[in-house]
Amino acid sequence: MMLAVYDTNVLVSAFWTPQGKASALLREVISGKITLCYDARMMFEYKDVLLRPKFKFSESMVSSILDYIESSGLSVTPPAVSDVQFPDETDRAFFEVARFCSAPLVTGNLKHYPVHPMIITIADFYDTHILHRSDTASSKVLQAQSSDDNVPLRPFGETQDALKQNVFTDAEDRAEIERLGGKAR
Q1: Of the candidates 30, 17, 16, 108, the residue with the CA atom closest to the CA atom of residue 65
Q2: pLDDT digit string, tens, across residues 15-54
C-alpha cells in the first residue's frame, strides 16, 4: 500500500474525464492500492469544489467517494508549515499533510505549490507508480485498454470484462464502492 495526497484538481479531473490518468489514480484508491492522506480542511475543499454547480457532478457519487476516502484514508492533523508561501492559501493544507505523511502530493497544476521533490504531476505519478507496475491486475487492465481505443475507462470499475462491455452505471459504481468498504448513498 502506498500513501499519497491528491489535490482537489485530481478528483475533478477523475470525475470530468473517466478515461484519463486522474481517473486511473482514483481507481487505485478505490482498489486499496493507494491510501489517501487528508485532514479536515482538505475534505471541506473536496466537497466544496466537487459540488459546485458548474461541474454538475452527481451529489451521491461525490458523497460516496468522499465517504470512502474518509473511511479508508489516513486522517491526520499536521503541524503548520509557516516558512512556505502559497498563491492560494487553501493549497497549504495539501502541502502540510503530504509533508507530515512523507507522501507524494499529486496535482494537475505545479504552479499552486513551491518547488519540492514530493510534489508531482498527475501524469508523472501515473507513469511512475501505475503504468510501470506490472504486478497488479489494475495495471493489466489499463495496459489492455491502452491498446484498444474503443474501450473507455470508467472510474471505480475494476474488471476488464465490465470495462470492455462499458456497463458500469452510477448505481454499479456505488455498489463497487460499498463492496470495497466505503459508504455509498
Answers
A1: 30
A2: 999 999 999 999 999 999 999 999 999 999 999 999 999 9
Which single residue is written with the C-alpha cell 470484462? 161
| HEC assignment per residue over the chain | CEEEEECHHHHHHHHHCCCCHHHHHHHHHHCCCEEEEECHHHHHHHHHHHCCCCCCCCHHHHHHHHHHHHHHCEECCCCCCCCCCCCCHHHHHHHHHHHHHCCCEEECCHHHCCCCCCEEEHHHHHHHHHHCCCCCHHHHHHHHHHCCCCCCCCCCCCCHHHHHHCCCCHHHHHHHHHHCCCCCC
pTM: 0.73
Task: Measure the CA–CA gap between 89 and 92, rounded to whole angstroms.
Answer: 5
Are 27 and 6 a contacting pair, CB within 8 Å? no
Q: What is the CATH code of the structural domain delimited by 2-179?
A: 3.40.50.1010
Cα radius of gyration (the chain) = 16
pLDDT tens digit string along 51-73?
Answer: 999 999 999 999 999 999 999 99
